[in-house]
Amino acid sequence: MSKWGTYLTVTLVGLVMIYWVYGLLFYPQTWEVTRLTPKPVPKGDQEIAWLHPATNAPVWERFITGLRVKAAENPLWGLEIDETQAYPDQTADVPMIAMRRKNVAGTLWLRWYKITSQQDIDYWVKALMTRAPAPLVIVGGGSSDRARDLAWSMAQASPRLPDPPLLFITTATADEVATPDGQRTPLMQIYPGRTFRFCFSNRQMAEAITHFIWGQEELRPNSDQVFLMSYQDDPYSKDLVEQFRKIMRLEHRPELLEPSLQQALNLWQEEIPYSIGPLSEPNRSEAEIVERFVEHALGQEGRNALLVLPADPKPARRVLRSIFRSAPVLAPRLVVTAGDTIDFDTIYRDRHLAWPIQDLPCRLVLFCHHNPILASAGFVEEQNLAQPGFQSTTGTQNVLLYGDLGAMLIQGAAMSERWVERPSQLAESLHLTEDWLGRKRFDAHGHRHGGAGEFIVLLEPIRLSDRVYPKANLAVYERNEEPTWRLVDRFEVYYGVKLLPQEGSTR
Description:
Elements: H1 3-26, E1 46-53, H2 57-73, E2 79-82, E3 96-101, E4 108-115, H3 121-130, E5 137-140, H4 144-157, E6 166-169, E7 176-178, E8 184-186, E9 195-197, H5 202-214, E10 225-231, H6 235-248, E11 266-272, H7 284-298, E12 305-308, H8 313-326, E13 334-337, H9 344-347, H10 351-354, E14 363-368, H11 397-413, H12 423-432, E15 455-464, E16 467-479, E17 485-494
Parallel strand pairs: 1-4, 1-5, 5-6, 6-9, 10-11, 10-12, 12-13, 13-14
Antiparallel strand pairs: 2-3, 3-4, 7-8, 14-15, 15-16, 16-17
């Protein structure tokens, strides 16, 4: 090719690139990805719309598994679950299952509308609530901020409908959230009268954890000092710490705690500005607050201490590792609770990477909304696996939560010979349902009743003298109607080979 041909080619390529960049900057809509639209609902059918991030497919699988478990437990429902469209070949398509009941006309559709940057919560809510018919229920709220956004969007879109959809919150636990104008408001009052929460709230969680710890002599702090840490960029963390603060300062003292908490406790409270940081080393703010905590905790003269640290596993590991590197003597004295942010799978199935006990040798108290080790829902202890390995089965708490939600829908939405036609009919049915103790399942605001049915997981490292071994005891407790805490099961958890010294060994 001549030099003029080369020059012409380079010039043309350059012009094309300039045109492309110009169009990208000033006319981005020309490259906009085609948005999905809600699927139609045939006459006589009803739809449950589930809004969940596109990147979290395992939760969809657990939702379906929970429905299967409930269908197997209740053969009289005559429920048929059609999963032929549950896992479409195109990832951008809408996964769905069809549920049909014997002697009930029509189909109840469960569809996963995936939340993405192009199709966010507000987009799906507007699209679903302007389609005729709108869904019977919109399910979502896997986190407190997503639940807030979903409730806000539904409240904004609801005036145009005579009977707008119900909102079912799955695992968002915050009692109060920030509104767009920066004020704090109860989450359940953003879309009032039509919101139901299927998990326990932060207030209920804080009460249950406090009730459990103060009922165990070996866990209960033997001083009047409690440590509270939260993250400023995490609304869940801030809200849960606020609920613990109200309980410890006796601003909110449930009747169950009156025999335990007779006087207000001294609180050491710090708020960490941000939770972003490296894998194992604390960020600057975490390091500074850890140093202040260690200095204060070492002044407690060998007493047991409670640290409330609502944080995801990654920042929680950073903070606790930093504490125990600075002051190893605190590890056997410290009881840590994170609410439900550190879940059962983190400390059991994924423990070798997510929660190595020799690096984090403190007693850990966690909350579960359902039984995490129910064999009939699929849980198998690692030692009972057909092919033992480093991976164990997943906890059953989420399967049971989604199965519980699905069962409420299947029972409440089915009338004598057809599915209910209006969301308000379903709401009336839900307010009449009872739990296993014969109590109303929901209060007037849509909260699940507490005081029984909560689960606590206790992880305790194995210590011999001054050594921590790659082994721990894991116990699961359930609060029953007395209310007392019943031991569901206890088993040993290993973090390496099962070759440990005997307790009386001198080697």
